[in-house]
Amino acid sequence: MNALDVALARGKETPFLNVMRTKWSEFGNVASPALNHVWTQIEATLNRQAGTDARDVWPVIPCELGAGKSTAAKAWCATDATRPGVLIVVPTKDQADEYARDINTWSGVPGLAFAHHSGLPLAARQNLDALASYPVLIVCHKSYELGLDDFAVDVSRLKFEKMHRYGRDGQRALVVIDKSLDQVHEERIRRDALKELLSKLPRAVEKVHLDAMRVIESVNSALRAAPDERNRTFSTTELLALTSFTADQADALLLALWEQGLRGAKIEPELRARLGQTLSALRRHLSAYRRTAGDGKLTALTGHRLLLLPPSTHGVVFDATARLNNVYLGRPSEFEVQRTTQVRDYSTVTVYDARTNETGKRAATENGERLAADTIAALREHYGDRAGERRVLVVVAKDGEEHFRTVGTGAGFAAFDMAHWNKIDGRNDWRDFDTLCVATLPYANDSLDLNTYMAVNEKELDDAALNAPPDEVKLIRENRIAAQLAQAMGRIRLRTMTRMTARASPATFFSACRTASGWSTRTASSTRSSAPCPAS
After folding, report:
1. What's the gap between Cα 463 and its chain centre?
2. Low-confidence ranges of the chain (pLDDT < 50)
3. Among 25, 29, 118, 465, which has the highest number of CB atoms less than 10 A from its own CB?
4. Residue 312 and residue 260 share a domain
């Protein structure tokens, strides 16, 4: 029996469990035997991974949304200020600040935890040597992901190295990733992005870096000639056909354009960041497999990179939708999704799948006003006289957000709010809402899931396979969308635990699904496997 099994079997009281129960009660929740079991498992896993028995394979803890994973990470750090260095990676700056604030307050040790992010004053951001002095350091997903990417021009490898250091010469014993990173990095350069790079470079920079300009113009010529209606691989020779440079020479020229030109140029920070992203993408495409994704005027040069976690580091991942994560599923030698006890009874939760043809971003962009009016009217018709009792959250593509806000605000619901995809995970703003309506689905572009398949499986497809991809690509897409749906479901009040029975507070989900029943059925089934709910 290993250390984890022993800890679970004993079920002994610990300072960690005492803090968890106290905080759970303060949050208005009720603990349960199932929660105690999950919390004990989290504590034992963190203890093991921070100690001498740490495993190289990262355990992923997939307990449900709202089961206290983030609270557990804070409590574990706060109950022992002598732990040998912990790095915590969270999605946003606000969450990083909250982590540091709670750990310092709960521990009674000011300065035990420190959040380092782009919102700090310049002097604090640049004082990287100070990071090693904090027992608990919290950084953001984006910063960590950039540190894993060797080709990003706007990130210091020194910062990434120093966030892992602890004390004078040591390394942090544990990395905790709260919610999954975007480990498959898809880099797309649309034709308009290269045109912007060529047109917006300051003339003073351009004159000094003429060879780099030739590289960009050569790639632009290749992209201009790429087919609009199909995918096509490109060799480095084809991309650099108008120059005499090798890939390494071209890369050095682009890096110099950034380091000695754009980085210090007097241009708007937002424009500099955008041009820097394009240069980073160009460097990747010159060094690795790349292709064009034919999509008419939106045709783009695209490629992928799997961001591997640093070797010789030990850690734990908290991810409620881990069973749908394509990287965890496809890389069992690096990640092991743990088995955890279900902590809620979802019999009070109802899911409705609304079959329709208009389920994507285009519906919100081109017909947003009508989509909003029809959707809100359908919700009011469904609830009738009880509509005024419902607290409704609508999730839609960003382009449709204002249309829904305009219609929904005056619809007579007890409360109404909006959110758009990619700005919802991890938020607790709607924990009192009882109704979720998913008006459009987060399809993203077709190349994303194809790139994920190639990155996870370490494959480089030829033109024939790119234009007739394997069936696994469809499954990858379904997993990704189902995970995002499950995250949206977890934003409303089913995440609260107010009964000893662990029965979730009554809630209702309405989700748009394609009329193609095979697709919608598989996606709905995958979603319920992460957030189990009976269908109606």
Report:
1. 30
2. 1-9, 515-536
3. 29
4. no
